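can u do me a favor
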């Protein structure tokens, strides 16, 4: 997440995933975070990914749920600028 060099991960390397929902005035969007060694390494969103449901289903088959991630604006900014 954020800026920096890219890295390729295998789903077998993941601890699992967390889901989060961001509410807006008009609708809501779901986010899925993939975690490796306790750190968020990827973020998928129903807003940005047209195939989000397919990706989520594939991830659910290969990894385990780690629960719900509370969503807030400060957390989003922290994720964007975290090294």
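np, heres the sequence
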């Amino acid at each position: 997440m954020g800026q920096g060099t890219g890295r390729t991960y295998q789903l077998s390397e993941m601890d699992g995933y967390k889901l989060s929902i961001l509410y807006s005035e008009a609708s809501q969007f779901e986010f899925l975070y993939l975690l490796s060694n306790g750190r968020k390494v990827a973020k998928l969103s129903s807003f940005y990914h047209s195939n989000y449901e397919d990706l989520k289903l594939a991830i659910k088959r290969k990894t385990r749920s780690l629960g719900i991630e509370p969503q807030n604006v400060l957390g989003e900014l922290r994720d964007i600028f975290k090294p």
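Strands lie at 16-23, 28-36, 39-45, 65-68. hope that helps!!
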